[in-house]
Amino acid sequence: xxxxxxxxxxxxxxxxxxxxxxxxxxxxxxxxxxxxxxxxxxxxxxxxxxxxxxxxxxxxxxxxxxxxxxxxxxxxxxxxxxxxxxxxxxxxxxxxxxxxxxxxxxxxxxxxxxxxxxxxxxxxxxxxxxxxxxxxxxxxxxxxxxxxxxxxx
Length: 153
Hints:
- There is one protein chain.
- It contains 3 helices and 6 strands, in the order ααββαββββ.
- It is of the alpha+beta class.
- The longest helix is centred in the N-terminal third of the chain and has 40 residues, at 3-42.
- The N and C termini lie far apart (74 Å).
């Protein structure tokens, strides 16, 4: 292999490593946003939790209700009857497309009754993130309920 070929291979190797490091940094930012969102949900801080979503975010609840936008989400949460609940999302995978500033997150979610560490409901979720504003925000989330625990007596 001549000097130009070796230089090209070296350059390609450097670009791959740089791209991989950039991906990891973006993924770390999304995971930090998700952790902060989970903490806001556990603290029942709906306003803080909403700050992690775009104004026009779509959410499909575990029961299949489609919610469009932060205001509709706030109204939906306020309309819920019964004991308060919080939800924790645990990411299994995050993939980032740096060209269009979109990311895919998928994982499991669990719902807990107020003052409990025992989940009563859960399932799988996926989220689309966007960085069009310069900060990773949730643009869309889909939750599917796959298991419900019987009430403890």
